[in-house]
Amino acid sequence: MLTSTLEKNIFEHQGSKIKIEQQEVQIIARYEQPLVVVLDHVLTNEECDRLITLSQNRLARSKIGASKHVNDIRTSSSMFFDENENEFIGEIEQRISALMCVPVEHGEGIQILHYAPEQQFKAHHDYFVETSRAAANNRISTLIMYLNDVEEGGETLFPELNLSISPRKGMGVYFEYFYNDSLLNKQTLHAGMPVVKGEKWVATQWMRRKPYRV
Ligand SMILES: O=C(O)CCC(=O)C(=O)O
Ligand SMILES: [Fe+2]
Questions:
Q1: pLDDT one-digit tens code per residue, 107-119
Q2: Cα–Cα distance measured from residue 62 to residue 183, given in angstroms and rounded to the nearest whole number
Q3: Which of 107, 119, 177, 184 is most exposed by smallest CB count within 10 Å?
Q4: pLDDT digit string (tens) for 184-196?
Q5: Other C-beta atoms lying within 10 Å of the C-beta of residue 50
Q6: What is the rounded CA–CA span in Å between residue 82 and residue 109?
Q7: Does the keyword section mention Transferase (predicted)?
Q8: Looking at residues 41-49, what average pLDDT do you find?
Q9: What is the ipTM of this complex?
Q10: How far is the CA of 117 from the centre of ligand 2 (A)?
């Protein structure tokens, strides 16, 4: 039977709605193994706008010039909020923690990414290679939240699953890679496709296997 081979997920929510405090997050679609969940109403429009405003003048441009090679994995600009840096960020972190079924202490700071036209995040895994020091407390799951509507392009693509998600403000995509079967983890390979028109803003939460915050 197919179900006998299914591994246990971190994400425990069933059905189509997840009520967290005042927010009613909706499950739009699920890809079962590896688990990829498309979510709506993760953030309100006001929260999306505020995350953009708060991060705007703290973005650092990725290195260009000498290092501008075709193999530059990420060409967007980014920043991290400090963990629980203010009440607003703290509330968002609590919601994300409940949504991801992982205690807030396992979370890295929320990362903001900004893509201008032609910028992209080439196919990658979010977890660290086994031989790296960071792998001692590796990442286990990701939530990508879209902070604006992109005019054209900027899809999140899972090439090994033939799955593509078009960014829409307030929506999110969740996936996990803590399976015993390393092939399933590898299949969470994903990319932020080049923005064609307009710009793209995302917020990303990565969760670690063990508490990460000091
Ligand atoms: O921008 C995207 O769609 C992908 C972002 C991403 O892969 C990440 O933040 O780890
Ligand atoms: Fe990623």
A1: 999 999 999 999 9
A2: 31
A3: 184
A4: 999 999 999 999 9
A5: 16
A6: 5
A7: no
A8: 98
A9: 0.99
A10: 19
